[in-house]
Amino acid sequence: MRHLLTGLELTPDDLHAILDRAAALKLAPLSSRVLEGRSVALIFQKPSTRTRVSFEAGIAELGGHPMVLRPGDMQLGRGESLRDTARVLGRHVAAVGVRTHADAELEGLAAEDQLPVFNMLTQGHHPCQVLADLLTLREAFGSLEGLKLAYVGDGNNMANSLVGMGAIAGLEVVVSTPPEFALDGVASITDPREAVAGANAIYTDVWVSMGDEDTADARRAALRPYRIDDELLDAAGGRGDVIALHCLPAHPGEEITESVLYGHRQHIWDQAENRRHAQKAMLEWLLAG
């Protein structure tokens, strides 16, 4: 049985096959009916826009029924075990996606091996977003081979997944964060302009994630030099094709300027669309196991 918990489960062949299939499904959105007559449970313990919309639409296009479950809809909130929850879901749905806080909750469901489990975002990883990012980069540059991606800002789950899955895809991924926000075990460049030199794409995420509200002012002050603006894009070395990427939601004026977010030097809205296509290909891969 296959699971997608971190994205590191994928081999290079798996990853590139998913991207190939995503590109094909983007051209022919209704060409696969792999979920015909089947349901997929989507457990949201954290708010969502892009993840919920893209999964609901994608599952419907695959012929399936998206079953959205919030904490108040389930007995998990009243103490039912992950073990029992997995066993019940395995009798009714083809797969389950979870958007939650701790990675251990996702791992607990997958450990029961009752049905395929996929990560819709945890504190440590966001693999579905990276699948869309890689598809977007491939569309923008024709190939992933030889590309450099610079991530600037908070060393969070998004940066962690880009580093791990980017290595599988063959990308050079460079991370630039303030020392206090660096990823554990990942080398970080403090100067964002040094980090972006020669980059094909510069990526950022929000500075104040859910749960960071108490330290919001300090985080904004420390991260201000890491904002993506036209000057930072120019610092990539005068490349005419350097693009800005952002997993959204964005806060114009903080981690990215309004002129970049809505300008011609970004592929951010392509990323948002590509969530649907990449996730459909991922579900096909998941169920093929």
What keywords describe this structure?
Rossmann fold; 13% strand; alpha/beta; 2 domains; 8 strands; single chain
Summarize the SSE layout with pairings.
Layout: H1 12-27, E1 39-44, H2 50-61, E2 65-69, H3 82-89, E3 95-99, H4 103-111, E4 117-121, H5 127-141, E5 148-152, H6 157-169, E6 172-176, H7 192-196, E7 201-204, H8 216-223, H9 230-234, E8 243-246, H10 258-261, H11 268-288
Parallel strand pairs: 1-2, 1-3, 3-4, 5-6, 5-7, 7-8
Report what the structure shows.
It is a single chain. The chain is an alpha/beta fold and 289 residues long. It folds into 2 domains: 12-126 and 275-288, Rossmann fold; 129-272, Rossmann fold, CATH 3.40.50. The chain has 11 helices and 8 strands. The chain has helices at residues 12-27, 50-61, 82-89, 103-111, 127-141, 157-169, 192-196, 216-223, 230-234, 258-261, 268-288; strands spanning 39-44, 65-69, 95-99, 117-121, 148-152, 172-176, 201-204, 243-246. A 4-stranded parallel sheet has the order 2-1-3-4, sandwiched between helices. Strands 6-5-7-8 form a 4-stranded parallel sheet. The radius of gyration is 19 Å and the shape is globular. It starts with 11 loop residues before the first helix and ends with a helix. The mean pLDDT is 95.
Distance between the termini: 5 Å
Order of SSEs, N→C? HEHEHEHEHEHEHEHHEHH
Question: What sort of overall outline do the alpha carbons produce when their principal axes are compared?
Answer: globular
CATH superfamily of the largest domain: Aspartate/ornithine carbamoyltransferase
Average residue-wise pLDDT: 95
